Amino acid sequence: MGAITPADARLDEAAVAALAEQALSDIARMKTETAKVIFGQENVVEQTILAVLSGGHALLVGVPGLAKTKLVGTLARVMGLGTSRIQFTPDLMPSDILGSEVMDQDEAGRRSFRFIKGPVFTELLMADEINRASPRTQSALLQAMQEYHVTIAGKRYDLPQPFHVLATQNPLEQEGTYPLPEAQLDRFVMEIDVEYPDLAAERRILLETTGTTEAEVSAVIDSTRLMEIQSLIRRMPVPESVVDAILSLVRSARPGNGNDFANAKVAWGPGPRAGQALMLTARARALYHGRFAPSIDDVMALAGPVLQHRMALTFAARADGVTIREVIGRLVEPLGRG
Fold this sequence. Notes:
The protein is 49% helix and 15% strand.
């Protein structure tokens, strides 16, 4: 095979640019459709879409009534994805989400086992109040999220492609819940804080959701097109300065790496998966905002949702009322000065 010439490289760049232009159009239509029924919450909508575009899963944290479930259902329709929902409860068993084998008997009396797929066999899974499930059931789902297949009675069953989990969690009511272990939280590309809507958005919610009709959304893309956009995002070039910024940020968030502030406030920090998540979501954010390469601003904007569930504060920091978001904000500051 011959070497790639400058002309070939330009041709490839032109092809990628053409694909990016088409992806920009699709993403713009996705935003328009979603805005028909999700009012305000621009950051939440953006970050959730970015999690899917980057090929990952997201954990949405917010009090009840903030349209988390509606957002997931809306995105499933807009992206043309098959969807199912699991309402997690303490008595939910792994087989309730993964599926199980049942015994069949034919006319001749021969018996055999048949696998009945559970709700995890879908393209976009809504895992509602995931922290209400037992650790055993949480582990079954989170293993599927990581490996994209399940094993029942020694036989492997692959999950559909694409496969994304958008899980929700109520941060207030902790009685009867099982907090996700840190190793399992790490499998979510982002933890997205869902805040109360602002005044204008809440006024619109009152006016447009209490009448006789509500707006409906249409599919903009399908699963095949989504995977094409995900593949394009992985091909987007990343400037060396952005790679350095990601490495600097992730490593500075770990105690024992020469950052006195992190040493004092952080008990343990993010692993390499955090850097991978920042790299992918920064590319996705660049495309979301109409750019063909990520910048340091993208890294700074995504530092909070990507890092906050991958770090823990020291006892002293918690006693002083310090929050993870405040710590991340301090660690991000040097990137803005760079």
